[in-house]
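Handout, tutorial session.
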Amino acid sequence: MNDLRFAFRQLLKNPGFTAVAVLTLGLGIGANTSMFSMLNAAMFPHLPYPDSGRLVRVYRTSPQSQALSHSCANFLDHREQNHVFSSLAAYYWEGFNFGSTAQAPERLTAVHATADLFPMLGIHPTLGRIFNAEETQPGRDPVAVLSHGFWTSHFAGDTNIIGRTLRFDGESVVAIGVLPAAFDCPMLWGNVEAWRPFVITSEERSNVENRFLKRSRTDWRGSMPIMMPAPVFDCSLWQSRCRPMHRVEARGSCLDSRILFC
């Protein structure tokens, strides 16, 4: 206390120095606050989905990596035994060639996702519909939901695109919907032109040794399951039910948060 009294007396005796010190501190604090606000908005923007602050990722870890994917079998086990989250979905990226036999193919990117993904994120299509759970079963007719950017750049926003047959990797794929422009989020998905059903085969359902959701035939870029929990989520509860190789990374508070399971 004596030191504080002495310091205050010295400041009162030197008003010019005190004014300069206070002004310097104020400018420094203000500049740092402004810089943090700008960088936070630029580098960590909110995702364009309802309650995006509740989205969290869960990774499988190992001594070699802290952000590994999961096998299809493990993902299905997590979804079946889930008593914590309100929904659970998975997706992976895959490159594909787009074009007809008369055109030079264009290399684009598709995301294959389970039917839970779009309802979980609160997304409704601008045109048509999204794929359903039946269309994620093996043997179904191939369908795709187009991104808004792909729809406008390659089809000039043609509203008659629904039901049209497109060629992806030489395969006939029916366009069933178009996503809203707000859904495009390169920070999370990258540049994606089409969204397709995540089809899990009977072999993949039983193969727990495979440590990846999918390895696509070409241009595999990674995979990541996603979860959204119940309204109140306790990280310690989920960690106690996971194997030691799993960790929880919360983007935002851990309580009352959605989950991205990676």
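The second record follows below. Compare its token runs with those of the first.
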Amino acid sequence: MRRSTTLLGTLILSIAGSLLAAYLTYSHLFASGQCSAGGNCEKVLRGDYSTLAGIPISAFGLGLCLAVSYCAWRSLSSAEESGRFDLLLALSAAGVLPIPYLIYLQAYVLQSWCVYCLSLSAILLAALILLLRDQGTRGKQTLPTVECLAALTLILIPPLTAKATQAGIAQIKASGHGNPVVATIGERNIHLDELKRAIQLELYTKEDELRDAWLEQEILKTAAQERDLTLDEYVIQEVYGSVEVTESEIRAFYEQVRHDIPDSQTFDDVRQGIRNKIGTMKGNQALAEHVDQLKARFGYIFTLPPFERFMVDPDTRGAPTYGSEDAPVTLVVFSDFNCFHCARAHQELFELVEKHEGKIRLVYKHYPVYSDDMAEQSARIAACAHLQGKFWNVADILFESEIGEFNDSTLESLAARAGLDPALLKQQMNDSMTADIVTADIEEGRALGIYATPSLFINGRYIGYAPPEELEPMILTELEFAE
């Protein structure tokens, strides 16, 4: 009776393991599902150690789980032992053997944990423990030939199927069927992937705006229901009803825009239009403030789903960073030293990192694609400075100063101000490595679809850019989520 219970438990565990391994394999092959949604699972799934001979390791795990399921079922359905238990024990032990190595890789090499991989390891370990407890003392048994061949076949089918699927996917992509041409401009063919990549951040921004608007409307509806009012009645009573536009405000606004008003129109002609415009602006501001108060009262929290976060590797090449390496919030900014808005953002981001000491890490990425050649030269100089450990010194100077052109004189002056070795700086500027550093950042930005600078990601959430008063609440939300 105990043996039957052990076998039934092993069968249930191995079926659960098969389902989990199948899901992992599917996620790896088709880059879909929660495991490819960013974060730690994505790092493990896309890491260099996730395949064996080009085949997802999870496919081998699937084959092993299927073999264990088959042997457990055969042992349950047959009265003869015939060495099946020993085969079952050997298969379970084979599944457990790689676990210490896989845990080592996640802990010390990838430094990321995948809950699905850990769950599969726990299932295989539980099955082995269950079998070992009921091993008992038996004489040496001959392993059944039929079951051994069947188990071997089941072990090989998933990896071979995965390999064939990978080849099929590659062939479809190569033929263009998986990435069709959606537009033609002269002799240039624009494929679907290129189009999606180019507009993904703009679509993301628009979706974010629509989502925020809908959620704020739901907050107002909740407050209106408490008062047994319709949404419109509530907004008029609680918000717009208290908005007043004074004559002095109308007159002051008129004076500001007077030069844009045709001479044929008097103040009285435009008075009502100005009043309506001021009323709309003050009403929108009052509504936003009221919604913020309701969010605080209702304990509103919005957490961006993992699959909507972008995989932005913050340290692909030892990128310049400021702040604690262990900070729970990472800000990755794509910036340009010749961009006025980037210069302002540079100072604002520094202040935020210092204000939340130990909580935020700032990572800089070069993206000098929307200005002139000076921007790329500035980026290269900053890359050289980073190699000398002086990146932020140079960044401060480049953002604050207007340098007409880079020549021997200006480079020496810059080196002196930033504490750089001028001879080494010249040598590095002539080295293709610094150009490669800047190019790598630009390629990453283009792959993400970045279309403006500065562009900011908060723990993978695309922000574009926002002033500190809007940015800080987003950071605090991420801190709450991380903690």
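Points raised in discussion: The longest helix spans residues 192-226.
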